[in-house]
Amino acid sequence: MKKILLFLVCVLGLQVHAQQFNDYFDDATLRIDYTFSGDVHQQRITLDKLNRSPRWYGKRQRLAEVPVEGNGQIIVRHHATRKEIYRQSFSTLFQEWLSYDEPQHTARSFENVFLVPMPKDTVDITLELYNNRRAVMATFTHQVVPTDILIRHIGEHHRTPFVQLLSPKDTSRCIHIAFIAEGYQPSEMPTFIADATSSMEAIFAHEPFKSLKDRFSVVAVQAPSIDSGTSIPSKGIWKQTALSSHFDTFYSERYLTTLNLKDLHDQLAGIPYEHIIVLVNTTHYGGGGILNSYNLSMAHHPLTRPVVVHEFGHSFAGLADEYGYANEQIPMYPHDVEPWEPNLTTLVHFGDKWKDMLPAHTPIPTPQVAKNQQRIGVYEGGGYALHGVYRPMMDCRMRTNENPEFCPVCRRAIRRLIQFYTE
Ligand SMILES: [Zn+2]
Questions:
Q1: Which helix (H) or strand (E) holds 417?
Q2: CA of 203 to the centre of ligand 1 (A)
Q3: What is the pTM assigned to this prediction?
Q4: How far, in Å, from the CA of 318 to the mean position of ligand 1?
């Protein structure tokens, strides 16, 4: 009897969730293009374009919850009832740029693109950006009327060719990943498919992706480029590629990114995707990962496989870098604020982090000696700082390319995130 009751409760629970999605949303995607602009003193968000594409490939339950806080959030409210019906977190290159010197004296603008399920009724959409003290630094609200004739329809008749690399057990509850080609000419697409397959295998060789592999859908999108390779401004090399990616982002030599978010999402229109991995056809070392925006990595370097997985730790799970620099110029993590990232602590609210995984009598900070190599502790150095910020293990995929796996704290964070999206 108890079992039957429990079963009924579960079934009813599922129906409530499905009902909530169907009450407020159609099975379609609303893609919203924004411009984020400003300098260190003032930031501004403005609306660019609204687009609609078939099907919705993001979460269908826990719609108004986020598994990680991020450096910003997008919030959808039903206009008539003010009820919050969808929320997602993200990070942006714009906010990262604000930590450099240029925004001290110059205002710039950046493209940003977000996907939300297509609302059935009028909604109010709010964007919030947070500073490194986790306080709101910019906010913007606008209305979307779903019958607006100027919402551009995309991805209905013309889609970039793609190949399904991995199919999930249950397509209604899975995580959609798209690999996309950057700097591959049409004749190089077999190379791209092989590169995407190899990178995918690298991700699923790591726990907990390995044991939860059947919850993922992976496609490889063959976006064609005119030139082969990518731009390297420090060497005066400029190429014409699908996403206009380049090294030397913010004048940092190994920082390979694309700032053309609209081109990226245009190439993906109508394709089953939520999380994006851009593979760049270059042998030069570089990459970057931005939470719920994209992961971008070089495709042909001996370290490609660990770098793709490391950057996916940022873009998919919101994990922080666990390394520090000897001469950090601008502190990313103030020592009196607990970071939101699950794999760092300033000890301000360590109870929210991995305190429950710490063996009894572990000294804090934990000495970085050989016998502690495989022990969870509280090791000083992480989040680009050598002091005041702590990490869970001496080494991790989020610290070095040599370590073969994610540390237990990162593994737990990733597992929780996969469960959040698929259970
Ligand atoms: Zn870790």
A1: helix 408-422
A2: 15
A3: 0.94
A4: 11
